[in-house]
What we know:
By secondary structure, the protein is an alpha+beta fold. It has a domain at about 5-105: Aminopeptidase (3-Layer(aba) Sandwich), CATH 3.40.630. The chain has three helices and seven strands. It has a seven-stranded mixed beta sheet, sandwiched between helices. The protein starts with a strand and ends with a strand.
Amino acid sequence: xxxxxxxxAETTFSVRNPVLRPNQPxxxxxxxxxxxxxxxxxxxxxxxxxxxxxxxxxxxxxxxxTNKQIQVRGMAILDEFQKKGIGxxxxxxxxxxxxxxxxxxxxxNARKNAVPFYEKLNFHINGTAFEIETVGTHYLMYRFI
Length: 145
């Protein structure tokens, strides 16, 4: 995918901050495990400008009985670039990475307003809504590969 490139955790902050942590310090964009060698960060570029990001962590969720899992975190597209298919392309990159690494499951905590987007990509809700302090209502979502 020509517009998608692997990037560093710190590079994601220019999109994570305004989209996922507005009015919060940039340090709030640092996620545990960001710099592990098993973590991959993808950026989507338009004319060399970073406009979308997603981070992929090798992390198992105890709700599923497989260790071959990845967690998606920090999926974000700058406001003016949303609804243009960039999120789908980034998630296809995640799915491709999962397949290449013979993972069995992709899971994440999705913001309430993003659930319909993920459902279009064949992800499913597991359980009921829960709150993440300072961020809002989320659902645990998953998809088997």
